[in-house]
Amino acid sequence: MTQGYGPQGGRQGQWGGQPPQPGQPPQGRWDGQGASPQQWSQGSPAPASPGWGQGSPGPGAGSYPGAAGAVPSGSGDGVNWPRVKTLGMVLLIGAVLLLAIRVGIDLAAIVGADGVAASSAGGEITGGVAIGSSLVLLLLFIANLLVSLVVMVLGIIAAVMGRGRARLGGVLVAVGIPVATILYWILSIVMGIVLAASGAVDASGELTASHFRLVYGVDIVRAVLMGAVILLGAFFVHSTAKKKLSA
């Protein structure tokens, strides 16, 4: 008689388990050796989460100045070219306006040369044309002073903010304003001396209306030349900023 604990001849298993029935897959053991390694030792992959040292990105990250990935408003050279472009546009308008005012001063002086000659001789200004031209001259001189100051200050700002040709343009504008004024007085004095030396004066030693017309006619050339220099400087400021922004 034989007696054992292993499965022999259709007897029960070692621990009392039933033998597998025909067509039924064998059952796994309790120690998990019959299961797939991934089934017992691995769980479902957890969703990726930021590390301990990293926070979750907030909404709209990189959309405000100073954030990582934000697009800088200025260029790499540190110049605020949109503002320089605006300055250039204002300088262009101011240069054209200044040129028109200064040419207008000379034209008004030519029209009212009789009144200018009378005023220079110490007499009274008479006649509607002379009085009207004198009032126009006064208003134009005030406008010339105000516009010249504004354009000169904007030229200095453009020279400080700009780079390259923009800075050169600002210097031309800022320097052109006082140079034009100095040239006006130099030209007036030289023309007066030349006309007086040539005997082109009246009995009292004063210039006549015709001579004043000649002086202001020559001054138109000075006003146009200096206005062109200021206009060129304003163009340098605006065109350079425009090229930098389109690059």
Quaternary class: single chain
Task: Compute the separation of the termini in Å.
Answer: 104 Å
Strand content: under 5%
Helical segment tally? 6
Care to count the β-strands?
0
Helix residue percentage: 55-70%
Low-confidence stretches: 4-17, 28-35, 59-73
**Which series of helices and strands comes N to C?**
HHHHHH
Main sheet summary:
none
Mean pLDDT value: 75
C-alpha geometry: elongated
Q: What is the structural class? A: mainly alpha
The Rg value, from CA coordinates, equals 47 Å
Offer a concise description of the structure.
This protein has six helices and no strands.
Structure, described:
By secondary structure, the chain is mostly helical. The protein has a domain at 81-246. 60% of the residues lie in helices and 0% in strands. It is built from six helices and no strands. The protein has helices at residues 37-41, 81-111, 113-120, 128-161, 165-197, 209-246. Helix 2 (81-111) runs antiparallel to helix 6. The radius of gyration is 47 Å and the shape is elongated. Residues 4-17, 28-35 and 59-73 have low confidence and may be disordered. Keywords: Membrane, Transmembrane, Transmembrane helix. Residues 26-51 have a biased composition (Low complexity). The chain crosses the membrane at residues 90-111, 131-159, 171-194, 214-237.
